[in-house]
Amino acid sequence: MQPIASARVVDVVRDQLRSAILAGDLAPGSRLSVPELARQLGVSRSPVREAVLLLVGEGLAVEQSRRGVEVARLELGDVLELYELRISLESLAARHAAERMTNTDLVALRGVLDAQGAAAVGDARSFRELDLRFHEIVSQTCGNTRLARHAALLAREMRLAAPLMVNEPWHLRQSHEEHRTIERALRQRDGPAAENAMREHLGRVCQSVRNRHSTTP
Amino acid sequence: MQPIASARVVDVVRDQLRSAILAGDLAPGSRLSVPELARQLGVSRSPVREAVLLLVGEGLAVEQSRRGVEVARLELGDVLELYELRISLESLAARHAAERMTNTDLVALRGVLDAQGAAAVGDARSFRELDLRFHEIVSQTCGNTRLARHAALLAREMRLAAPLMVNEPWHLRQSHEEHRTIERALRQRDGPAAENAMREHLGRVCQSVRNRHSTTP
DNA sequence: TTCCTGCTTTCTACATGTAACACTCTCCCT
DNA sequence: AGGGAGAGTGTTACATGTAGAAAGCAGGAA
Asked: What sequence ranges are listed for the domain HTH gntR-type (chains A, B) (predicted)?
């Protein structure tokens, strides 16, 4: 059996807070009061304080000096910054993943895409979930552990901006097709093709977010 | 006067520990015992514990589950990972910096390069210091705050690998010339040229590190 | 010698105590 | 009515207490 070192309270609290933030239960701008959270979670303040600091390190929360920590509020500019970074990092990851992915990884990736193809019709929530899984698999199999870690951080931080995303069905379907193109390149072990496909995919999504908000400010 | 919010003990401790690590006073692999450090620094364990966790978040230390935290030990593979990321991020930063740098920034950059040109002869330590400043200025003026933050983290983490670096005078001189090329592109506001120059510069440095250690393992 | 066992020491992880500070609300003075 | 003092509340930041676990060491058996 694997090491179950996650019996640590701080890890549990961090995961719970992260889930609550990403699910929207803790809205952007909410103050994260350590004593209050400790009471609600039934633990002492120490692990809560640590967990909150870790979330700050992940970019999910921001601390203003002496006034405590609050859930990060992402503007359009932040999302564009994040996309720019994701384009750079994930296209690099895709290139390496094409050379280093195992067949098991490819099967998993195909599974995610098939599920996404089935869900793509109107269920934006499931679609986004599978989108995350797709990008996560590519990033985590690139062989560069630091690249994987930074990419995961960026992807998570971006989830805070869910309300700014474009959820039109045709747009989701287009994303799905682009995912298929990326997967094809990965399966053929064509690094440059995977890199380009990933860059174009994220670039197009970024552009659509930008258009969406420049026309309806 | 500006807000002197940095009277916080945790910030002071973090800076001291970081300096000690980067200066080599705390060698890679050293255990960071919270009670011991608290005694030495004359503060309680709480801020020390927080500071240590922050350093883990920065990649300067690693925690093995339940066995505490120790200063990160960078192998050749880690350095290559870091260079790959830096190439990706800093070349992107250079492109944007070309468009967004102020004239004041350019003057500062030129100043760093002139100092580097004067120091390049045999003083590898000063040279490296100015190398850091050069890359820092470019990254910090790119206009993308997250990109700047991630680039700064990578540059700092890489300082842990000082013993693996190549310090031959001809190599330093070559780096300096490449810096000049980058600066020229930035001054001419030529984004793509700055991007390419940065990518080639870091790529060459990375390659020289790789060669150095594949021939003398 | 090598291996096992039990003790000792130290640390981590969590809990709790507390001074100083920030915000809010009330009430009084002008 | 409007503005400001001041109490009251809640928080942060740091200090300290402590159970349990891990590492190191000693000593004895094979």
From this structure: 7-74
Under a CB-based contact definition with an 8 Å cutoff, are residues B26 and B17 in contact?
yes
CB distance under 7 Å to strand C: residues: A 8-10, 43-47, 50, 66-67; B 31-36, 45-46, 63, 65-69
CATH 1.20.120.530 residue ranges for chain A? 76-213
Quote the minimal CA–CA distance from B3 to chain A in Å.
10
> Straight-line distance from CA A68 to C1' C27, in Å?
30
Lowest mean pLDDT segment, chosen from A145-154, A167-176, B79-88, B190-199: A167-176
- Quickly name the fold that domain B4-71 has: Arc Repressor Mutant, subunit A (1.10.10)
Q: Are B112 and B133 in contact (CB under 8 A)?
A: yes
pLDDT grade, residue A184 (50/70/90)? very high
Nearest-angstrom CA–CA distance, A176 and A181: 9
CATH of domain B76-213: 1.20.120.530
- CB-based contact, A88 to chain B, within 8 Å: yes
Task: Please tell me the pTM assigned to this model.
Answer: 0.92
pLDDT, mean of residues B76-83? 97
For residue B131, the tally of other CB atoms under 10 A from its CB is 20
Q: In the beta sheet, which residues pair with residue A64?
A: A68
